[in-house]
Amino acid sequence: MDIEFVRSRFIKHFDGKTGNIYHSPGRINLIGEHTDYNGGFVFPGAVDKGIMCEIRPNGTGKVLAYAIDLKDKVEFGVDDETVPRTSWARYLYGIVQEMKKRGVDVKGFNTAFAGDVPLGTGMSSSAALESCYAYAINDLFGDNKVSKWDIVLAGQATEHNYCGVKCGIMDQFASVFGKAGKLMCLDCRSHEFEYFPFEMKGYKLVLLDSGVKHELASSAYNDRRKSCENVLEALKQRYPEKNMETLRDADWDMLVSVKDIVSEEDMRRAVFVLGEKDRVQAVCKALTENDFETVGKKMYETHRGLSEDYEVSCEELDYLNSIANDNGVTGSRIMGGGFGGCTINLVKEEIYDSFIADAKDKYMNRYGKQLKVYDVVIGDGSRKIC
């Protein structure tokens, strides 16, 4: 991201004075999809692409925000009770409100922001936007009194309360806590996590963008969360003594025992979630042993589960997964919430060029689209640039 570009737009659209510049990244997730809101485990890392903002207090009670990439400007009051209609402004408005709830005395400010996270790819540009502004507001108005976890939870609450997405905490966590060269295994219930060095010698991680855009606020995403809640309620009825909080508390025998009182669709959703919990733990163990073949095997299993049980894939993503398998790629799966976006691929360096060339050629022939390719570089989390 070009600091001077963001600064030039900020100066142009406001009073010519400069402010502070902050950056928060998007993320990849090696494995562990739709498990965060089920209290399970995830394995994300921050990337080198994200959202950058310049921000300066303006001495009023108004927020004046300019979205550089969209060439769109919005104004709202810090204490306004009406949520802005503009979709991108809802994230900024929500963060202001959620940081106020956490004791930060937010005042009016001018801001401009831009991003280089490819939109609709599953790299979570929205979490990067939330984290960037929560971090900036904490620095400017809170004297850094709010913890990193409060910043994460403020972003999640913004999604829930102002954007209509009942997400878990993985995206915001990765954006705030990321470290260059590290992936993280996060327990989404306890919030305990561990950094894993990302030193896959002989391998590369690469994203293939299907070009199919997803919209996580659609009913399809929230419907799947509701399915998990339905199964959890059935388990609570059958096992009241277990004090179950999420599907993470269930084992396979318990799940089978409620098969007669939940729908077939809800059961398939739960089967995926329990299987994914096991797969994340298997990948953690495999990485400590440099066993990338097991990592790759679990990635393919995740894709099958997301496609067949959770039903968040699409024809294009399944086709990219099959191309990876045909080329001998070690691991490949949908990344993100699904309904479009990217596949993430664990590729041996010696077949990388031939795989990418074959995928581009076949995708163009079938869909008439130029396949976009993003090599994964693991970067740092939210920070003040200057």
Automatic annotation (TrEMBL):
Domain GHMP kinase N-terminal: 91-179
Keywords: ATP-binding, Carbohydrate metabolism, Galactose metabolism, Kinase, Nucleotide-binding, Transferase
Domain Galactokinase N-terminal, residue spans: 9-57
Residues annotated as domain GHMP kinase C-terminal: 285-350
NCBIfam families attached to this UniProt entry: gal_kin
Entry EC no(s): 2.7.1.6
Pfam families (UniProt xref): GalKase_gal_bdg, GHMP_kinases_C, GHMP_kinases_N
Protein name as catalogued: Galactokinase
Homology family: Belongs to the GHMP kinase family. GalK subfamily.
Organism: Xylanibacter caecicola
